C-alpha cells in the first residue's frame, strides 16, 4: 500500500502493484489487511486518476473482484463509493471488451448474495450499464457470460429489479445468446430464470423404449 501511495502517478508501476495485490487476494485475512492499510481508498484514487487507462481500469476491476470475495470488504467497497467507480469506469472504457468483461465480473462479485450492494448499484444506474455493455459487445462471448452473472446476482435477492432489466432489453439479449453461444447456456439460463422469464429446455432422454427422443419441457 505504501508503494501505491508513493507512486500513484506512475501508470505502469500502479498496474504492476495492483496485479501483485490481486494475486495475493486468496484469503479473507489478506483482503482485510488491504482494507486496514487504507488500500480501498488508494485503489479508488488510482482508478479515478487514470480513468481512461485501459490497463489501470482492467486491473482495478480484477482487484475489486478479488476484494469482494470477502463479505466485509464487499460492504466497504460500497461505502467507499465504488458504485460510481464501477459505473463511470465501464462507460469510459466501453470500447475495450476485456475491460468491460472485468467490470461486469466485478459487479457480479460485489452483488453475490448481497442485496444491500445490489440496491446501491441499482440506484447508481448499473442496470443500464450492464445491458448497454452487453448490447455493445453482442458478439463477445466473455462479455455476455460476465453480463449474465452480473444480472443474475443483481436480481436474485432483489426481485423488484427484474422489471427494470426487462424494460432495458435484457431478456431479448439473453435469449439471443442462447442461440449464439451454446457453451454459455447455463450462465444465460441462470440469469433468465432469476429474471422470471420463460425458458424452454430440450429433453433428450425420456426413458421410453430405450430410444432417444426429443421433447420439450418448460421451467
TrEMBL record:
Keyword Repeat included in the entry's annotation: yes
GO BP terms: hematopoietic progenitor cell differentiation
InterPro entries on file: ARM-like, ARM-type_fold
Signal sequence residues: none
Transmembrane parts of this sequence: none
Keywords of this entry: Repeat
Record's keyword annotation contains Glycoprotein: no
Protein name: Armadillo repeat-containing domain-containing protein
Amino acid at each position: 500500500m505504501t508503494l501505491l501511495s508513493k507512486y500513484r502517478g506512475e501508470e505502469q508501476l500502479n498496474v504492476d502493484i495492483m496485479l501483485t495485490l490481486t494475486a495475493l487476494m486468496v484469503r479473507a485475512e489478506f483482503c482485510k489487511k488491504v482494507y486496514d492499510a487504507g488500500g480501498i481508498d488508494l485503489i479508488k484514487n488510482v482508478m479515478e486518476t487514470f480513468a481512461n487507462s485501459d490497463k489501470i481500469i482492467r486491473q482495478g476491476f480484477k482487484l475489486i473482484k478479488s476484494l469482494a470475495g470477502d463479505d466485509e470488504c464487499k460492504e466497504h467497497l460500497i461505502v467507499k463509493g465504488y458504485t460510481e467507480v464501477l459505473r463511470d469506469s465501464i462507460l469510459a472504457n466501453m470500447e475495450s471488451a476485456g475491460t468491460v468483461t472485468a467490470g461486469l465480473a466485478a459487479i457480479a462479485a460485489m452483488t453475490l448474495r448481497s442485496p444491500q450492494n445490489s440496491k446501491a448499484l441499482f440506484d447508481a444506474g448499473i442496470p443500464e450499464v450492464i445491458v448497454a455493455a452487453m448490447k455493445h459487445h453482442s458478439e463477445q462471448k466473455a462479455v455476455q457470460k460476465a453480463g449474465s452473472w452480473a444480472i443474475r446476482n443483481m436480481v436474485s435477492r432483489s426481485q423488484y429489479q427484474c422489471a427494470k432489466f426487462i424494460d432495458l432489453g435484457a431478456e431479448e439479449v439473453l435469449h439471443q445468446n442462447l442461440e449464439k453461444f451454446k457453451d454459455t447456456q447455463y450462465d444465460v439460463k441462470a440469469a433468465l430464470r432469476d429474471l422470471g422469464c420463460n425458458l424452454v429446455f430440450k429433453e433428450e432422454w425420456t426413458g421410453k423404449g430405450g430410444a432417444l427422443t426429443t421433447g420439450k419441457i418448460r421451467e
